[in-house]
Fold this sequence. Notes:
Helix content: under 10%
Distance between the termini: 34 Å
Number of helices: 2
Oligomer: single chain
Low-confidence stretches: 1-9, 99-110
Largest sheet: 7 strands, antiparallel
Radius of gyration: 20 Å
Number of strands: 13
Amino acid sequence: IKDGTTESPNSKPVTLEQCLLRFTGEERLESFRCSSCAVEKSAVKQLSMQKLPLVFCFHLKRFEHNLNNKKVLTRTKVEDFVKFPAHSLDMSPFLAHRNVKDPTAAGNGSLHPQHYDLFAVVNHYGSIDHGHYTCYIVQGENNWFKCDDAWITHVDASEVLESEGYLLFYVKRDLVYGSASVASS
């Protein structure tokens, strides 16, 4: 990271937001054959979301399978740390129209951020061939618990945010029903 941005398009993301930007960024396709005219040309592909769900489950790629130069399949566990927020993950930049109007703004056209809060994290400990899964879950505002088989223990939020993260679960903070908005707690 240099000045808050990744140095090159091939550098590894270090935050969940950078992962999402990379996942939804424009991708140049060379030698793309048009389905309408069958002409081969370059094109741009970009993933985006038309509508946001109430709950997001982000699956971080932690297992990698590659063919080496001898055509042998290698399997490795990816243990790069990805920083993820506990609160206020704004998903509005990843919408297709990127211009979410606030339905409660009475026509003033203000933008409405789409904030999500973390409520669970699943972690994998071990290697690609064997290991153990645990889960962190929140109850209330900032009351975190670690679930490890039959043991459930109270933990500090910092332990959750410093964990490796395999599956990250976020819930939408404000639920909008027609013209009424309900803040979740």
